[in-house]
Specification:
CATH superfamily: Amidase signature (AS) domain
Radius of gyration: 21 Å
Order of helices and strands: HHEHEHEHEHEEHEHEHHHHEHHEEH
Low-confidence stretches: none
Largest sheet: 11 strands, mixed
Helix content: 25-40%
CATH architecture: Alpha-Beta Complex
Structural class: alpha/beta
CATH class: Alpha Beta
Bound molecules: glutamine
Strand order of the largest sheet: 1-3-2-4-6-5-10-11-9-7-8
CATH topology: Amidase signature (AS) enzymes
Number of strands: 11
Number of domains: 1
Number of helices: 15
Length: 486
């Protein structure tokens, strides 16, 4: 087995036994990038020099006999909407094509304390708006399982990098499904933490009441290690929650006996791919065999979730994206006659079509006379969706659903039909509106050999339960061990 194929916990053990060096690990991953990146295009920026320097530092510490944190020397890929001091951070937008942040996001400070090795910044849908990474302002990323298909989005670069072994762990962000849906489509693990669990300081804002950063990894154990590293209260983010952070590796228990799993009847609807339905139902059977109790539940307001999300997320996006005006940083259009003209030209040339669509939709929803009819109503519906989950969690410990209604779709298949594209997140969006947590893990393959993901949803700040249930499933199956043939 090559080093780049391994998980973070396997590499950690080898490093601690001095059987490999951090430099050997990073060289192996860089070699892999050299072999496949031309086909996959997961990265906007590859930080090879920095990575080698960071790895040398880890090896120096190792040689001096110092005890190292769990993720020391592990090559990690970072979504390009997370600010990295001195390293280009574009959000895959022309409007930020040259933006080099003067500071680190809190999650980067935390990962640096773990002495990770940053391998690069990954491609995404522009400003995280999309479900296929086709909305990147620069280029598209391909699914490692089938190069004619999308990797999902918006964290498609991070998910593809993990599936293609071009990084060992990655960070994504999730506003309506952007960690879980690409994880499902690429056959890897992705976790969206509870709102407030991970600091958003230094995450470029899309929809501030929904955005969360989370890990994308090769297995659940690595997911727990990444969660240990990135969670925790941050005074720099006023929505960060001051709650204790458990050691998530304590939840790696391969046992679900007595755990109550709810299955919402509203999630097995018309339009869901029969192979997806079959794989998730087979997974539920497996849980029963393992001693869990599976029961049907109802989340009656599910049908309003997608519409509700597009009002709320677009409204917040229109406000957050006002700051890109070409004055202090980023792209500035040439040939403007005056200030207003400069704003107009910069924003029309700098933003792509999907971002403009959201800004217009959101500005409309917030405008005088429409605020009550759209945004305020949207917030009320959000409360009803949240209440559905509260009621369900009085009866069950976790909720299991498909992550995405279909496996990876073809490049170009949905790009001209925004409504169809928006439906890709039909099973993930409610979790963000309710502010709760969920993980996606591999649970099968389609007859075309495409990965299928299962979503496990948990109570607020109960990532421990979803990690435990996911780990138990993983330990009893081998879907996470399969690799694409690139
Ligand atoms: N696909 C959804 C959207 O386009 C969710 C994106 C996300 O989670 N960042 O808004």
């Amino acid at each position: 087995m090559e080093l780049y194929e391994m998980t973070a916990h396997q590499l950690r053990d080898l490093l601690r036994k001095r059987e490999v060096s951090a430099v050997e690990i990073v060289k192996s991953v860089l070699e892999r990038i050299g072999q496949v990146e031309e086909k996959i295009k997961a990265y906007i920026t590859i930080t090879d020099d920095l990575a080698l320097k960071q790895a040398e530092e880890v090896d120096r510490k190792l040689a001096s006999g110092e005890e190292l944190p769990d993720l020391a020397g592990i090559p990690v890929a970072i979504k390009d909407n997370i600010c990295t001091k001195g390293v280009l951070t574009t959000c895959a937008s022309k409007i930020l094509y040259n933006f080099v942040p003067p500071y680190n996001a809190t999650v980067m400070e935390k990962l640096n304390r773990q002495m990770i090795v940053m391998i690069g910044k990954t491609n995404m849908d522009e400003f995280a708006m999309g479900s296929s990474t086709e909305n990147s302002g620069f280029f598209i990323t391909r699914n490692p399982w089938d190069l004619d298909r999308v990797p999902g989005g918006s964290s498609g670069g991070s998910a593809a990098a993990i599936a293609a072994d071009e990084a060992i762990c990655a960070l994504g962000s999730d506003t309506g499904g952007s960690i879980r849906q690409p994880a499902a489509l690429c056959g890897v693990v992705g976790l969206k933490p509870t709102y407030g669990r991970v600091s958003r300081f230094g995450l470029v804002a899309f929809a501030s009441s929904l955005d969360q950063i989370g890990p994308i990894t090769k297995d659940v154990e690595d997911c727990a290690l990444m969660m240990n590293a990135i969670c925790g209260y941050d005074p720099m983010d006023s929505t960060s929650a001051n709650v204790p952070v458990p050691d998530f590796t304590k939840s790696l228990i391969p046992d679900v006996k007595g755990i109550k799993i709810g299955v919402p009847k509203e999630y097995f609807i018309e339009g869901i791919d029969p192979e997806v339905e079959e794989a998730v139902k087979a997974g539920l059977k497996k849980f029963e065999e393992m001693g869990a109790m599976v029961e049907e539940i109802s989340l009656p307001h599910t049908e309003y979730a997608v519409a509700d999300y597009y009002i709320i997320a677009s409204a917040e996006a229109s406000a957050n994206l006002e700051r890109y005006d070409g004055v202090k940083y980023g792209f500035r259009a040439e040939g403007a006659e005056d200030l207003i003209d400069m704003y107009k030209k910069t924003r029309s040339q700098g933003f792509g079509p999907e971002v403009k669509r959201r800004i217009m939709l959101g500005t409309y929803a917030l405008s005088a006379g429409y605020y009550d009819a759209y945004y305020l109503k949207g917030l009320k519906v959000r409360t009803l969706i949240k209440r559905d989950f509260d009621q369900a969690f009085e009866k069950v410990d976790v909720i299991v659903t498909p992550t995405s209604p279909t496996p990876a779709f073809r490049i170009g298949e949905k790009i001209d039909d925004p409504l169809t594209m928006y439906l890709s997140d039909i099973f993930t969006i409610s979790v963000n509106l309710a502010g709760i947590c969920a993980i996606s893990i591999p649970c099968g393959f389609s007859s075309d050999g495409l990965p299928i993901g299962m979503q496990i949803i948990g109570k607020p700040f109960d990532e421990e339960s979803i990690i435990r249930v996911a780990y138990a499933f993983e330990q009893n199956t081998d879907y996470h061990l399969r690799k694409p043939n690139i």
